[in-house]
Write a structure and sequence with these properties.
alpha/beta; TIM Barrel; eight-stranded parallel barrel; 17 helices; 40% helix
């Protein structure tokens, strides 16, 4: 039987948190992760307390199959789920990939809206119903926990939606997902649709209803909550709301809304909210997608107060302008000041507070970089340390290593970069002119390690903290054929950070060349 189904039947107010960061989230352009990164995120999601981890789409590529299979072996608490279309090959691949999981689920889907059936599937209603019955029945051969989704469910006609939901439940599905695939619905409309299923589908008590809402109109979280208020008991979501187009419902927003508004939303889940911030930051580091400062819950300004009126209220009582505490989402407001006189013990302690435990060699390297940074900054903030250490971890096993950089810039020109890199341990030097200092740096990297197929798709700079001495964090995106990678670099010198970011991205590209299998061309799941 489905673990989620049993939990909800035991506690009617229990909401299952289904995380699809590693599947739908990874489909966001530029968010592709390698195996090591996926395993790291899977462990963090398990520790966060999500009920279901949708680990990938096994049929999509050998790499996807491997990642789902490896995640199934290491996850200790959550159910591991693999996505499949309503096709025998897909379902078989999903069943094989999740085989090692202690708790496993197959999630199979097919389109049900008139638009999708006519133009995408080129199938009639009877053929779709037959495919639903056959796919769910086949999936039950691999696991008792089968979830079925009506792709583009929010634009599916009520009569047909009731019919297909009843068919899927009769075939053995214990979770029924009604996706707002294109983010078209509004809360009142989506809630009505969920309630309609409870009113009209005769076997609805044999399954739980799930929401999967996209954010094209900025309503993904609101629609998800409307679904729960009308009987849904599983919410599908992602960390930081990443996903196709405008993304998915954000896990952190949903969980904190349920926690903060218990007066109107008396529902429970098992998310350890104090781990939200660290999970969010780790995903941002892996993908190179920085969270916007005003992002709810995890944005840099979520608990910041600039207005004098707000500050006065905060000094008198924090609840005047904060509806939740920073500590409840894992923010550490320690006032321990890190500066150039700080010692190794204080440095180690501060990193531990932030969730980083480094081995001696890694600690020594990070401490040396900290000292260099501290010589150039009056005060080191927590975000400085996070950027510094995360950059160190990413570079640990690099093929290319940044050594040194000297840049000549200014109005008189020419702008030149003198760059030294280690390539597989051998030190190499290049001096190159460019159309500006950044162009010169990137040309110097290409001169040392030619990679004509790699195209620069994004160059982005932002300050990790405030002030003219703020540490810069640079994101570089490289694209080569079907491979896209993001590299990040952090340094008080923006040009050094730029070189580090490009080298970081190039290292990831080299890893993808050698260790990842090519894509098979099978479409990604789009629910």
């Amino acid at each position: 039987m489905s673990r989620a189904y049993d939990l909800v039947k035991a506690d009617p107010n229990r909401v299952i948190i289904f995380d699809t960061t590693l599947r739908d989230g990874e489909q966001s352009p530029g968010c592709s992760m390698n195996l090591e990164e996926k395993l790291k995120m899977a462990v963090m999601l398990d520790e966060l307390g999500v009920d279901v981890i949708e680990a990938g789409f096994p049929i999509a590529s050998p790499g996807d199959f491997e990642s789902v299979s490896e995640i199934a072996k290491i996850v200790k608490n959550a159910t591991v789920c693999g996505l499949s279309r309503a096709r025998e090959a897909d379902i078989t691949a999903a069943g094989e990939a999740i085989k090692a999981a202690e708790s496993k689920r197959i999630h199979t889907f097919i389109s049900t809206s008139p638009l999708h059936m006519k133009y995408k599937l080129k199938m009639g209603e009877n053929s779709v119903i037959e495919a639903i019955h056959e796919s769910v029945t086949l999936a039950r051969n691999f696991t008792d926990d089968v979830e079925w989704s009506a792709e583009d469910g929010s634009r599916t006609e009520d009569d047909f939606l009731c019919q297909v939901v009843e068919t899927a439940i009769n075939a053995g599905a214990r979770v029924i997902n009604i996706p707002d695939t294109v983010g078209y619905a509004i809360p009142e409309e989506y809630g009505r649709q969920i309630k309609m299923l409870f009113d009209r589908v005769p076997n609805i008590d044999q399954a739980i209803i799930s929401t999967h809402c996209h954010n094209d109109l900025g309503l993904a979280v609101a629609n998800s909550i409307a679904g729960v208020q009308n009987g849904a008991r599983q919410i599908e979501c992602t960390i930081n709301g990443i996903g196709e187009r405008a993304g998915n419902a954000a896990l952190e927003e949903i969980v904190m809304a349920l926690r903060t508004r218990q007066d109107l939303l008396p529902y429970t889940n098992k998310i350890e909210t104090t781990k939200i911030t660290r999970t969010s930051r780790t995903l941002s580091t892996i993908t190179g997608f920085s969270v916007q400062p005003n992002k709810a819950i995890v944005g840099a300004n979520a608990f910041a107060h600039a207005s004098g009126i707000h500050q006065d209220g905060m000094l008198k009582n924090a609840q005047t302008y904060e509806i939740m505490t920073p500590e409840s989402v894992g923010l550490n407001e320690s006032k321990l000041v890190m500066a150039k006189h700080s010692g190794r013990a204080a440095f180690r302690s501060k990193l531990a507070e932030l969730g980083f435990v480094l081995e001696d060699d890694a600690l020594n390297d990070a401490f040396a970089r900290f000292k260099n940074l501290a010589d150039r900054k009056k005060e080191i903030f927590e975000d400085d340390l996070l950027a510094l250490v995360e950059d160190e971890v990413v570079r640990k096993n690099a093929v290319l290593q940044f050594v040194s950089l000297q840049v000549v810039a200014g109005t008189s020109g020419p702008q030149t970069a003198e760059l030294t890199l280690k390539v597989e341990g051998e030190q190499k030097f290049s001096k190159v002119e460019g159309n500006g200092p950044v162009d010169a740096i990137f040309k110097a990297i290409r001169a040392i390690y030619p990679h004509p197929e790699g195209r620069l798709k994004l160059y982005q700079v932002h300050a990790v903290t405030g002030g003219t001495d703020a540490q810069a964090e640079v994101t570089v995106r490289l694209e080569e054929e079907d491979k896209t990678v993001n590299g990040q670099g952090a340094d008080a010198d923006t040009l050094v950070a730029s070189a580090r970011a490009y080298v970081n991205a190039l290292n990831k590209l080299l890893i993808k060349r050698t260790s990842l299998n090519p894509q098979t061309g099978v479409e990604k799941g789009a629910i």
